[in-house]
Every structure is written in C-alpha cells, then in structure tokens.
Amino acid sequence: MQNPRRTVSNSQVKEPLARILLPKRGEPFDVRMLYLIEAEHNRERLRWSDRTSVTIPAGEEVSFETYFNAFPASYWRRWSQLRSVVLVLDVEGEANVSLYRSKEDGQRISVANHLVTTGHHEFEIPLKNFEDGGWLWFDVTAETETVIADAAWCAPHAPGEQILPDGTAIAPSAKKVAVGIPTFNRPSDAVAALQALGEDPVVDEIIEVVLMPDQGTQHPADEPGYAEAVEHFGERFREFRQGNLGGSGGYSRIMYEALENTDAPFILYMDDDIAIEPDSILRAVQVARFAAKPIIVGGQMLNLQERSQLRTTGERVDRKDFMWSAATHAVYDHDFAQYPLSTIGDEESRLDPKKYDSRALHRRVDVEYNGWWMCLFPRVVAETIGQPLPLFIKWDDTEYSLRAAQYGFPTVTWPGAAIWHMAWADKDDAIDWQAYFHLRNRLIVAALYHDGDPKGITKSIFKSTLKHTMCMEYSTMAIQLEAMQDFLAGPSHLFDILETSLPRIAAIRKNYSDAVILESADQLPAPTGAPGVPTSNIGGRLAKIKKIPWAIKGFKHLLSKEDPENALAPQLNLTPEEARWFTLSRLDSATVSTAGGTGVAFRKRDRELAKNLVQQTRELLTEIEGEFDSLRAQYRTALPKLTSLKAWKEVFDAQ
After folding, report:
1. What InterPro entries does the annotation carry (predicted)?
2. How confident is the model over 193-202, as pLDDT tens digits?
C-alpha cells in the first residue's frame, strides 16, 4: 500500500466519522481495553482528564488497535462512497505515529511511520485493500511527553448523492437524527439514557428530537433527574403516554412521530435498559450519510454484565428451520480484555482447536437483520416500506430488515457503534411469557418470507416441545399452543390482540407450577436427592456417547408414573446451568433458579399433562403444515395494511 498523503496545519476541516475516545473516568481495566492498550513495558501510565485528549509520558507507547478506536475499514469500503479516510490529530510534543492495517485474517501490515511535532496533522489512507475484511489503526510512541488531542477518522469530502434501488438519486442528508427510546416500567434506566444523550456536546448537536413513548405505570417523569434531563433538550424532547403495546408499539410510535412531525433524515431506535457510548450515535449517522445507497445501520451489543464482551458480530435467519442464527463468519461472546484485536495467534496455535484468538474479528460479516437495542433507519426507508408489524415483542426487528431487503435496502451491523445491554443468554425469555411471542411471531414472519416447505419449521418446533416436556416446562408448552392457534387465526386480529395477548398469556401461566416464582428454595422442604442423575455437563458440549444413553434413560423415566411424594419436596435444587434435559428428564421434581437469580420455580412432573400437551402440539403442527400455503397468502396480502401509518394512527388515537 502506498504511504498516506500527509498535510500539516491550515487544511480544510474534515467531517469526523469516528472520534478517537478515551475511557470515561473510573472505568475498570477491562473496559479501558475497548479504547486503548498501554504497552506492557511502559514505566508510567498514560493520563487523561477528558475523553478527547491523552498525555503520553516520554518513552511510553500506546496502541489504538481497539474496538472503539480502530477504524472498520472493510465496512467503509463495502458500503460507503469513500475511497479513502483521513486520520486527523492535534499534537503537542514529539512522537512517532505508526499507521497499520490488517488483512481479513488479522495479519498486521505496516502502512506508514511519521515523526510528528507540535501541530495539526492529517494522513489520508486509501481503502482499496479491504475487500474481505480488515481494520485501520495507529500506535503512538512518545519521544517527549506528548499530548494527542481531537483525533478522529474523518471523511476527505462531504457526502454525495445516494442511489435508490430504482436507480434514482437523492440529495445528501443533513447530520441530524431523531432518537427514540420506548420505555416500560424502567424509569431510572430511561432517565439515565436521556442523561447519556445530553452528556456529549458533539452528539447533542446532531440530535434533532428525542421521542419517548412511556407505556408503563412507573413513569420516568417521577424519577429524580428527569426534569433536568428534559430541560436540557427543551422543545427537542417529546413524551407520549400510551398503553402497553410492546416494543413494536413503542418503536412504531417513534417512527410514526418522526415521519409525521419532524424533518429528521434519520430515525434511531434505542432500548431504555442500556448503557451507551454516545459517539456511537454520531458514527451510525455518519455511516448512513456516507453510504453509497440507503442502508439500515445496526449497532452491536456489548454485554452489560461483562462490559468488555461483544455479544455477536452479526446474525441471519436460517432458512432450514426459520430460526435466528449466526451470520457467516460471525463471532459470539468475544472478550476484548482477554483477546484484543491484535491477538491472532500463529501458525502452530491455529492448528490447535482448543486455542482461541481474534482473527475472526477482522473478517467482514454480512447480516440479514439487527436487534433494535440500537438501530438507525434512513427516513427514505421508513417512508418506502412502512411501519413495524404489530407483533408486541420478538421478531419485529427481524421482519423489518427482511422486508427492507425485499425493497433493496440492506441491513449492516457496524463494528465500533455499540451499546451495552444485558445479553439475551441471561434471560428466561425462551420459557417465560415471552415464549408465546417467540413462537407466534416466528410463524408469522415465516409465512411472510419463507418460500419453502414448512416441515423444517414444524420439526424444529416439535423438537423444542420434547425438550420442554423433559424439563417439566408445561406452562411454556401451554402458551405455545396459544401461539400456534393465534397464528392459524390469521392476520386480521393482530391489532385487536396487541394489548390483550399478554394478560391472556399471564392468566394461562398461573395454572402451572413451573411458572410460579418463589423467592427462594428455602421456602420448600430440603431436597430429597436423586442418586445417579447427572447434574453437570463435564467436558463441554454433550457428546453422542453420552447423549444417546442419557436420552434413553430420560424417556424411560418420562413414560413411568410420577411418585406423588416427590411433589411435596424437590428432589434437587438446580441452577439454570444445571437444569438441562438430561437431568430434569430423570426427575419427578426440582427447583430451578431464574436466570437472574431472583427466585426459583418448583417444577413437578405430570405424565398425563405432558402427554396431553404433546398431543395437542402435534395436532396443531399438522394443521399448520396443511394450511401453510393459505396462511402464507393471507399474511402477505395483509402486510401493507398491518404496516401502514393509517392503521397505526388509529391505534395511537385510541390510547
């Protein structure tokens, strides 16, 4: 690669695409690793008092090959109008600035080295080497004590026209965004989100309006700090009290208000229960402005409980069973504190399947959808394809991206634009009340976008039903029956049951002991024990050599009559990790802690109930297979109405 062109001082101001940021004060070491890496041989620590300037003592070194500060060059090459990027930085002192790029396999390539002195410096770097992957970054070695300030990856020119799928061009968009945060009974989280939006002046400047549908009974307006947060935004803040219409109702209200009552060129969705790096908002907006064509820009999810951990780099829908799946080359649960971007191993370590490194993080990942924990939509996309479906929660984000793709608007999950959110692996949403929406909405979205045989879907559902049977999750099975019946009822009632489904499902679950949460297992008699029943999966993934005999023993036990004595006291007290099918299928009773550790459910085996629920499931799945073509036609015909501004306006006006 040729050396970057360099200019010093008095140059034209470049638009920042991503600022080089320092960690907030007080952040622990693992979180700091998302921003900068100090050389192990440094004798003195780096110092910073704000987020945009850092003091590097003489002789010390720092690398910005980090999640938030390296530049995801392959994504910019693939999706943007840019053919180069400019690194801009102000320097006080004397230092060596070393520019690097990576290949798709993580291999580091030196781009250039520059000895810089006090002044303003710019380095323009071509993006031609990043077809399949790769990042850009820089390291600094201080010759004298050096201050690096106001550094950023910048565009060398203003954004140009964008080409729509039909070939027509639209003018460049202003750097403005409507930020929407629906909230439901998380008043302190909602206030914290508002405060985060206003804490960075650069980000605050591009926020045209903040839209907050409040769907709960515990209101942010009653929370300390709310008045000050709202006062900061003034007329830019708008709150909407409405009934609990779920995430799809909250986000649909945001899109409706942004389209009808603002001129914002971009609409950004964010959950209320998150922590955000504010610059991620600017980054998402700049990605959308400089994109060659309008795209949906998804933010990545960092784990709120393990804050140096990236949950996933991208997802798709597996067409075999129409279920969420990892996108090709995607990475899950990557911890940057243990494995920085530079950790790529060597030829010998790569031959060892037990060795892990960060090479996969350098490969570009192409996705089909992005979760709405953070997701940005160009106005033209919303105006073209319509509102979210009235699905309450689950699959609304997936459906929207699948619909957008049919219109020619792809979704891109963008590295370095991210929020912290509780990972879904730490929730019980596959077995609690949300299981109804998981299944019903999966079937609805499959009817809209799955053109193949539905047997792969029904087989997958029945397989999960058997696992629920083994785990004594009868309430889950019962509400999944409701999900299938509501899917079979067709699309005409979706708006009618938008507010009523949740209370109905909650009432059904009350009839099953596995849905009743006790504060602690100590409210029950001590466990009586279950000798010989495995309670852990030693060695990781369950091998077939164990799975087959354990399954045989489990089914044999399930066919036997349960012992009434075991309904009086649990045989075992299990953690969520221990509550696996090969354990629970050989018990008559057990307590299982919730994913959050806030209580336990006392599960009790009931052979006749399980048999009845399995039979009903089998019958409904057979009916779904027989009616799927007809249902596919019904849902596709109804889609324009279900996603229209007019239909949603009627819902909002009735609130």
Report:
1. GlfT2_C, GlfT2_N, Nucleotide-diphossugar_trans
2. 999 999 999 9
Over 60: is that where the pLDDT of 10 sits?
A: no
Residue 11 shares a structural domain with residue 66: yes
3-state class of 90 per DSSP? strand
Which residues are annotated as catalytic? 397
Q: Residue 637 domain-assigned?
A: no
Domain count, the chain: 3
Beta-carbon contacts of 399 under 8 Å, excluding residues fewer than 6 positions away, are 388, 389, 391, 441, 444, 445, 448, 449
Please indicate, yes or no, whether the overall pTM of this predicted structure exceeds 0.85. Answer: yes
What CA–CA distance (Å, rounded) separates 620 from 458?
Answer: 10
Three-state DSSP class for residue 382: helix
517 and 565 assigned to the same domain: yes
**Whole-number Å distance between alpha carbons of 284 and 374:** 10
Measured CA to CA, the distance from residue 287 to residue 473 in angstroms comes to 44
- pLDDT value of residue 169: 96
Asked whether the predicted pLDDT for residue 427 surpasses 90, the reply is no
Q: What's the CA gap between 75 and 136, in Å, rounded?
A: 11
What integer pLDDT is reported at residue 539 of this predicted model?
Answer: 42
The tally of CA atoms less than 13 A away on the side-chain side of residue 386 is 22
Q: Measured between alpha carbons, how far is 346 from 511 in angstroms, rounded to an integer?
A: 57
Asked if pLDDT for residue 82 goes beyond 60, the answer is yes
Range of the domain at 523: 451-609
Q: Is 384 helix (H, G, I), strand (E, B) or coil?
A: helix
Question: What is the rounded distance in angstroms from the CA atom of residue 442 to the CA atom of residue 448?
Answer: 10
Burial class (CB in 10 A: 0-12, 13-18, 19+), 632: middle
How far is residue 212 from each of residues 119, 263, 390, measured CA to CA in Å?
44, 17, 18
Domain edge (last residue) among 99, 120, 155: 155
Classify the C-alpha dihedral 197-199-200-201 as positive or negative. positive
Please name which of 575, 580, 528, 572 lies closest in space to residue 554, comparing C-alpha atoms.
580
Domain harbouring 148, CATH code: 3.90.550.60
What residues contact residue 26 under an 8 Å CB cut-off, 6+ apart? none
Question: Residue 431: what pLDDT?
Answer: 87
**CA angle, residues 225, 230, 232, in degrees to nearest 5:** 100
Write down the pLDDT at residue 424.
Answer: 65
| Residues 608-625 pLDDT 10s | 999 999 999 999 999 999
- Per-residue pLDDT of 353-398, as tens digits, reads 888 999 999 999 999 999 999 999 999 999 999 999 999 999 999 9
Which residues, listed in sequence order, are joined to residue 412 by a DSSP beta bridge? 297
**Residue 12: partners with Cβ closer than 8 Å, 6 or more residues away:** none
Q: Burial level of 321, CB count in 10 A (0-12/13-18/19+)?
A: buried
Name the strand (E) or helix (H) holding 271: none
User: Mean pLDDT score of the chain, rounded to an integer?
Assistant: 93
